[in-house]
Amino acid sequence: MEELFSIKGKVALVTGGSRGIGLMIARGFVEAGAKTYISSRKADVCDAVAAELSKVGTCISLPADLGSEAGAKGLAEAIAARESQLDILVNNAGATWGAPLADYPDDAFDKVMNLNVKGVFHLTRFLTPLLAKAGSDASPSRVINIGSIDGIQVPAQETYAYSASKAAVHHMTRVMAHQLAPQRIIVNAIAPGPFESKMMAETLRTFGAGIRASNPLGRIGEPSDMAGTAIFLASKASAYITGMVIPVDGGFSTRHG
Question: Which residue ranges make up each domain of the chain?
Answer without folding.
Answer: 2-252
